[in-house]
Amino acid sequence: MARTITVGxxxxxxxxxxxxxxxxxxxLLELMREAHGFRxxxxxxxxxxLTTFFPRWPIEDEAELDxxxxxxxxxxxxxxxxxxxxxxxIGFSLGFAELVIENGRKRRFNSxxxxxxxxxxxxxxxxxxxxxxxxxxxxxGQHLEKRFFEVGDLGFPVWRAFGGxxxxxxxxxxxxxxxxxxxxxxxxxxxxxxxxxxIGLGDPFELDALEPFHNHLVMQSGAYQNATWVVGxxxxxxxxxxxxxxxxxxIAPSGEIxxxxxxxxxxxIVRKCDLDMGAPYRAxxxxxxxxxxxxxxxxITERTGAIPPLETT
Length: 313
Ligand code: CDV
Fold this sequence. Notes:
Layout: E1 4-11, H1 21-37, E2 42-44, H2 62-66, H3 79-88, E3 91-102, E4 105-115, E5 121-126, H4 145-148, E6 158-161, E7 164-170, H5 177-184, E8 190-195, E9 198-199, H6 205-209, H7 211-226, E10 229-234, E11 237-239, E12 242-244, E13 249-251, E14 257-260, E15 267-274, H8 279-283, H9 288-291, H10 294-304
Parallel strand pairs: 1-2, 2-3, 7-8, 8-10
Antiparallel strand pairs: 1-15, 3-4, 4-5, 6-7, 9-12, 10-13, 11-12, 13-14
The structure holds 3-methyl-2-ureido-butyric acid.
């Protein structure tokens, strides 16, 4: 019997700095209802989907900074999402800023959760590849993720859920082959990922102009080289003066984009994904156990004196 997940990729248009959680959650609910109308099993939202992309500002005031983070999930303002999901029998993935107190110390992560059709959290991921800087720099739109988040400490787990093997990663993670490969080695069949990628920070300009190309390049390669579906969900449009690329898309294990958003606002795209579509790739061209040459990779790096690979099995 075919194993399928009907997935909705819920692109978000801009979220303003002073938009309330209530306003934003109502937009997410609207998209969830639409996804339910399309009989989606699962809806995927972007990175930091509950707020504006606040790490662009050097926020000094601790209380103001804290206001962008969730201290509980679900909390009073996000509970309606969980309730609606359970009522309609639809799962979701959601990116948000996470604040936990451990041993009296505040810890901050850029996180995402996977919620099943009963409204239960089945997985949590904390972003590993944090772009930008920790020091405040004199440039517009600086990227202060290293200042406002710790490197995720949960690795790249996968979960048996929705009848398949699902994984998550967040934004800059998608540019690193290791992200997909670590999940690929665990047999991942669908990667859910949200992103906030602005145009206009590039230096030199050529890199900036290539941003839309690079966005799809990395996700399509990650999908193909690991025989997995990739669902890339953007924050799009002009947010607080910064142009966020859209290009939300659903990518098949062939590496082909099979659905893509056409706007820079709130928009849902839907695709029924055959989880077995990656099987021929895993059995042949990307049969990892048969073709990968770990020992050889080690020999080459030893000879050239290059930095040894992190992954050795
Ligand atoms: N949120 C991100 O991780 N954004 C980065 C930008 C700053 C390069 C990205 O990789 O898209």
